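Q: Given only this backbone (205 positions), what sequence would you predict?
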């Protein structure tokens, strides 16, 4: 999956989609991707639903502290990358060039997919199934391994560090709480902030 993402982004001689959040084809491709990822997570779980860690969390207070720490760390890392002339947001290509969106319904569909559907499926796949399968090798392996896989699948070079740090925080929340739900809440918040910042950037231009 990671190699496919990297090939499509950096190797294939195809023009990137302009303003993907405004595109119905991007919404369709995104929906297809999340359906496949969800099927993969449930299929590999093979009926052992406990592996997905979709249950009530414990030690919620600690998970909240990890969430704040993760959010601050990712923001600081983003600022550091920006000072080096790197732009992970531009690399990902979701920042639109115009505002308001030409088709509000399409934009709304893409926002739902990026902010809600994507984080839910990714948490099940990486912090649920992936973390559970790596846990027998030790908690540290499960945390780092699931974060590395999560970052790699995004297919970003400049943004790899940011996604990896986010993945680390989400995996620590999974280890602390025993559930994917706190990580899902942080993941949704992070993506919502990113989409809002993208929209504000477009409106300012």
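A: Predicted residues:
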């Amino acid at each position: 999956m990671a190699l496919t993402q990297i090939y499509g982004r950096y190797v294939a001689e195809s023009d990137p989609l302009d303003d993907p959040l405004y595109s119905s084809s991007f919404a369709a491709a995104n929906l297809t991707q999340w359906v496949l990822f969800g099927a993969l997570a449930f299929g590999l779980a093979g009926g052992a639903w406990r592996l997905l860690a979709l249950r009530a969390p414990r030690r919620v207070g600690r998970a909240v502290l990890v969430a704040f720490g993760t959010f601050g760390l990712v923001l600081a890392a983003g600022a550091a990358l920006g000072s080096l002339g790197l732009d992970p947001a531009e690399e990902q290509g979701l920042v639109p060039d115009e505002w308001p969106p030409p088709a509000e319904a399409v934009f709304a569909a893409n926002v739902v997919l990026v902010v809600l559907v994507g984080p839910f499926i990714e948490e099940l796949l990486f912090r649920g199934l992936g973390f559970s399968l790596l846990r027998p090798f030790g908690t540290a392996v499960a945390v780092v391994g699931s974060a590395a896989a999560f970052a790699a699948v995004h297919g970003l070079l400049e943004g790899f560090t940011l996604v990896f740090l986010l993945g680390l925080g989400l995996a620590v929340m999974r280890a602390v709480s025993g559930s994917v739900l706190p990580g899902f809440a942080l993941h949704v918040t992070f993506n919502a902030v990113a989409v809002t910042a993208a929209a504000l950037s477009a409106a300012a231009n």
